Amino acid sequence: MTDMTDGAIAPGARRMGAASDLYRAVWRWHFYAGLLVLPFMITLAVTGGLYLFRDEIDGYLHADLKRIEAQQATRIAPSALVAAALEAAPGTAIKYIDPPADDWSTEITVQTPEGRTAVYLNQYSGQVLGTLPDRGTVAWTIRYLHSLRYFGPTARSAIEIVGGFAILLVATGIYLWWPRGQRGGVVSLRGMPGRRIWWRDLHAVSGIFTGGFIVFLTVTGMPWSQHWGGKVNEWANGRNFGYPAGLRTDVPMSGQKLDEIAKTAWSLEQAQIPESDAPAAGMRPIGLDRAVAAFESRGLHRGYSVALPKDAQGVYSGSVYPDDLRQQRVVHLDQYSGKALIDMSYGDYGPLGRALEWGINTHMGQTFGLTNQLVLVAVCIGIVMLAVSAGVMWWKRRPAGRLGIPPMPSDRKVLVGLLILLGIGGALFPLTGATLLVMILLDLAAQRFSRRSDPAST
């Protein structure tokens, strides 16, 4: 046994003390991060899990508008469908959406005095099935709830903050979960549901199985964030009019971006729309029917949308983003000659664009079909379990009348080292870093106030 009479501390005790201090510091910031983001993570998991089945949800809940009986009859010409849509909703037609299958309806978007309206029509008879506000389906509602788009830009910024803290939660959670000699609570549950240890183990086990997926969903969801995603988008698209690296165009460009006229891939949100050449004397626009025929002759996947020209310089913009990334396509046609000004597919994206699009496609449950959807649903259920078990575990361990914040480490050097590591993560996600800085300052202020108000500490 080591002689302690001269005031020296045994090396083993020092190591145990340092480990205990580090555990406290990690636990404290794991608690803070969870307190901030777990309610958001429940919302994101529930809405994200539902949105994985957006086609099934809309096909069932809006069957009267979306679904029709498949027929052998010839489909009605697109221009005739647009004319019928304008009778039902007078205004200006701005988009034609091809049915994705023989038993789905055609959708026409019309700009009316009251706003954009989606008109659904039978592709064989031209019958108007009904109308909704543009992007007014249940699936679009779920998507906007998932992104907090209904609540304005400030709320959408919270998504970026939550994303950064979610990664922090996973990193600190793995450290806290790491086996330290215990046999239970690593991949199994101990005790009964009424006991705190059961909830602790449920939290730890569900966290270790979903942690990697949480990081993946966070990173692949970040491109949609308002600040971080926008800046990365600009950087990834390079200098070639916002298009991915490797594509060169020699056509006049308008100031309009592709994302402003139609749903598009993330990599192409900043892409500018070309302009039609000035027509020769007596030359007339080709019209929607010929434009649609041109898109189909070029092999656009079914379900493509066509943004109609807004003025004499406008173009017919056909785009489609099916589950198969290789079938992604954007084609802009001169409205007078029908010439393809730009014809771009997934293979034309730059390396970063392709990687990000693959991540986004997988995030949305599209890359691997039903397996992709079911795996992500299981992950969403795991995230809800993770959040609920954290709340129950905290409630069971907190002292009466207090928040139950894990204690500060006794060695401040440990805390400083941890905060430096957290700062590195904050630099990668600036909004998260700014929020983290505010939390640190509040924490230090609260500690100082607590010491002043506690006579025993003086």
Helices and strands, with pairings:
Elements: H1 11-51, H2 54-61, H3 63-66, H4 78-88, E1 92-97, E2 106-112, E3 115-121, E4 128-133, H5 138-146, H6 152-177, H7 196-221, H8 228-237, E5 253-257, E6 272-274, H9 287-297, E7 305-307, E8 315-320, E9 329-334, E10 340-345, H10 351-363, H11 369-397, H12 412-428, H13 430-453
Antiparallel strand pairs: 1-2, 1-7, 2-3, 3-4, 5-6, 7-8, 8-9, 9-10
Helix pairs in contact: 1-5, 1-6, 1-11, 6-7, 6-13, 7-10, 7-11, 12-13
Describe what this molecule looks like in 3D.
50% of the residues lie in helices and 12% in strands. It has 13 helices and 10 strands. An 8-stranded antiparallel β-sheet has the order 4-3-2-1-7-8-9-10. A two-stranded antiparallel sheet has the order 5-6. The protein starts with 10 loop residues before the first helix and ends in a 5-residue tail after the last helix. Pfam families: PepSY, PepSY_TM. InterPro entries: PepSY, PepSY-ass_TM. This is PepSY-associated TM helix domain-containing protein.
Structural features:
single chain; 458 residues; 8-stranded antiparallel β-sheet; two-stranded antiparallel ribbon
Number of strands: 10
Which radius of gyration do the C-alpha atoms yield?
28 Å
Could you spell the SSE succession in H and E letters?
A: HHHHEEEEHHHHEEHEEEEHHHH
Largest sheet, strands/sense/barrel: 8 strands, antiparallel
Strand content: 5-15%
- Rounded mean pLDDT score: 85
What is the structural class?
alpha+beta
Q: Summarize the amount of helix as a percent range.
A: 40-55%
Termini separation comes to: 36 Å
* Overall geometry: elongated
Report strand order across the widest sheet: 4-3-2-1-7-8-9-10
- Please, how many helices? 13
Q: What ranges have pLDDT less than 50 throughout 5 or more consecutive residues?
A: 1-14
